[in-house]
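Data follows
____________
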Amino acid sequence: MDSQAAYVHYCANETVNGVEFQYTPDVGAVPLVADMSSNFLSKPVEVSKHSCIYAGLQKNLGPAGTCVSILSPEFANGKNEMKICPTYCSWKTCADNGSMYNTPPCFTLYVMGEYLKFTKKMGGVTHWAEQSDKKSGMIYRAIDESDGFYSAPVEKQSRSRMNVPFTIMGDDDALTKKFLEGAKKMKLYTLAGHRSVGGCRASLYNGMPFEGVEALYDYMKSFMDENRK
C-alpha cells in the first residue's frame, strides 16, 4: 500500500454480491474511510481506527434520507477541504453548527433516536451482532448442508451477514423461478438476486425478525426435498 496515499476507502458490506469485511483493514498511518451503510449497527466497530465512517440510515437505523458521519478531529477541521467544496458538503461547517447549519430532516432523526433507545434497551450493538450471526448462520447452514442443491458464491470467510446470495442447482433458471413463485405463497418476498448477478438473495437487516428467517429456512429445506433430482 502507498504510505503517501491521501486515504484508504473500503465498503464494509457489499450488498449485491454478499461480501462483508469481518475485520478492520490495517492501513498504518494512512487515514481509513469506511462506507458502512449496509451493516452499520449490526456489530461493534473499531471506531478509533477510522478517520471517517459514514452510513445511510436506511438499512439498519431508520428511514432513508440521512447519512450518519463519524469523524476524527483532523477530518472535521476543514484543513483538507477543497475550495470548490459546497458549504452543504463541508464537514467543518456541519460540525461547527452542531449539525444544524441547514434545516435537518426532523422526522428521520426522531425515528433514528427512537431506534437507538430501543437498541440500548435490547442490550446495545452486541444484541444486533448476536441476532445477525444467528439469522445468517441459519440460512448459510441450509445452503452448506444441501449437498450442492444450493450454492453460495462467496468464500466463507468473506460471507455477508446482511445479504445472503445463493443459487439453485447451478443457477438453474426454471428452478429459480419456481422457488421465487413458491416463496410468495409462503409470504416470503423480494428474494430475487440483484439484476446484475441473478440467482437469489436474502437480506437480513436488523429489521428482519428471526421468525421470518426461520420461515425461509423451512421453505428452503422443503423446496429442496421436493425438487432434488
Remarks:
- The chain has two domains: 8-122, 125-227.
- Residues 37 and 201 are 18 Å apart (CA to CA).
- Strands lie at 8-11, 13-14, 19-20, 32-35, 52-56, 67-71, 150-151, 163-168, 200-203.
- The helical segments are 91-96, 106-122, 125-144, 173-185, 210-227.
